[in-house]
Design brief:
Layout: H1 2-21, E1 35-39, E2 50-53, E3 59-62, E4 65-67, E5 70-71, E6 75-79, E7 84-88, E8 99-102, E9 108-111, E10 123-127, E11 132-135, E12 147-150, E13 156-159, E14 174-178, E15 183-187, E16 198-201, E17 207-210, E18 221-225, E19 230-234, E20 245-248, E21 254-257, E22 272-276, E23 281-285, E24 300-301, E25 307-309, E26 317-320, E27 325-328, E28 341-344, E29 350-353, E30 366-370
Antiparallel strand pairs: 1-30, 2-3, 3-6, 4-5, 6-7, 8-9, 9-10, 10-11, 12-13, 13-14, 14-15, 16-17, 17-18, 18-19, 20-21, 21-22, 22-23, 24-25, 25-26, 26-27, 28-29, 29-30
Length: 371
């Protein structure tokens, strides 16, 4: 019996020493944040372009610029099956900083943008069946970098955007695109003039309009109610911001992240906040790891319910609503690309494409984020 006790004691001591000597397998909180890897480049270097997921799973990349005052009419299609881009029809007007929305018909509505030294009220429709763009009715106002949001009715809410050649400030005007008649109708104005704001469709069908710049960067937020066709003012941002990103969380709240204050390049923000439609108020959440602005208007929602934040930094981050924190993904972009596009594919991965760094040279590079 004594011998058995000695054997067991020796075995226990050996196990203890082995446990001390062997590093413990610790599962990091960062172990499921996904990764960013380079992908096939676009056919053209672009920033300020639009990227729209089509019904067949391909992505339409349209317009944008090669450099200042060198804007594209061209468009291309990304095929996730082959991982390659192919040319498609050209827009009728070269434009950058426009908005694009997939309509229920399967066509893509392209509105506004800059067309040289001014902005435009023109609109086009892209038909995948023919690969062609067709001019449609003009908007009721000039709009550079407006926001366009598909409503539950199938119509499109279009808000703000620059209405002056220099594009420094936005307009408070808004309008509806009627999908059935292919016409635009003016709406009562928002409570603040805006350009480079965000527009997020809520679960109840209303639309949250946040931030942007008029004469200065604003903290004012509006709710558009399709039932009354009017804007009502809701809670104010804790931090006035524009050129930020926004995304709908699984519980119906909205994340607002990054952007810049009135200092623009020297005033980019790490801060983030959450809008709760039940209370109509914004509350601070944990900041991002990097300050960043000139972001994609919409943060891609991942299958997990997390939101992807890309652009304005080499790092890509995800926001986890369960913890209220941002986590950096593995892998990096090649530069802090501004006005790149971020489009979730049907398999849950995200295509990141184009952009420009802190100079005039855009890129054709793309990356795939995989959760």
């Amino acid at each position: 019996m004594n011998r058995l006790r000695l054997i067991l004691a020796g075995a226990g001591l050996a196990a203890l020493l082995l446990a001390i000597a062997t590093p413990r397998m610790v599962v990091s909180a960062d172990s499921h944040t996904g990764s960013v890897t380079p992908a096939t480049p676009m056919l053209e270097p672009r920033s300020g372009h639009s990227a729209t997921l089509l019904q067949d799973g391909r992505i339409l990349i349209a317009g944008g610029m090669r450099r200042n005052q060198d804007f594209y009419r061209s468009a291309e299609l990304y095929n996730p099956t082959t991982g390659r881009f192919q040319p498609t029809g050209e827009m009728n007007i070269a434009r950058v900083g426009h908005a694009a929305v997939l309509l229920r018909s399967g066509k893509v509505l392209i509105v506004g943008g800059w067309i040289g030294h001014g902005c435009t009220a023109t609109a086009e429709l892209y038909d995948l069946a023919t690969g062609k763009f067709t001019l449609t009715a003009k908007m009721t106002a000039l709009r550079g970098r407006p926001e366009a949001t598909l409503l539950a009715s199938g119509d499109v809410l279009i808000t703000g955007g620059a209405d002056q050649p220099n594009g420094s400030g936005g307009t408070a005007s808004a309008e509806l695109f009627r999908a059935a008649s292919l016409t635009f109708e003016p709406l009562p104005p928002m409570h603040a003039a805006r350009v480079s704001h965000t527009s997020t469709l809520l679960r109840d069908g209303r639309v949250l309009i946040v931030g942007g710049r008029g004469d200065s960067v604003t903290a004012v937020a509006d709710l558009y109610d399709p039932a009354t066709r009017r804007f009502i003012q809701t809670g104010s941002l804790a931090t006035a911001r524009y050129k930020q990103t926004a995304g709908l969380l699984p519980d119906g709240r909205v994340l607002i992240a990054g952007g810049s204050d009135d200092r623009d390049w020297t005033g980019s923000l790490r801060s983030a906040e959450i809008y709760d439609p039940r209370t109509g108020k914004f509350a601070a959440t944990s900041p991002m790891h990097d300050a960043r602005f000139k972001l994609p208007d919409e943060a891609a929602q991942l299958p997990s319910g997390q939101l992807l934040i890309a652009g304005g930094s080499k790092q890509v981050e995800t926001y986890d609503p369960a913890t209220g924190r941002f986590v950096v993904a593995s892998g990096q972009l090649s530069n802090a690309w501004h006005y790149m596009s971020e489009t979730r594919l049907k398999d849950g991965s995200v295509l990141l494409a184009g952009g420009y760094p802190n100079n005039d040279q855009t890129t054709a590079q793309t990356w795939i984020y995989r959760p």
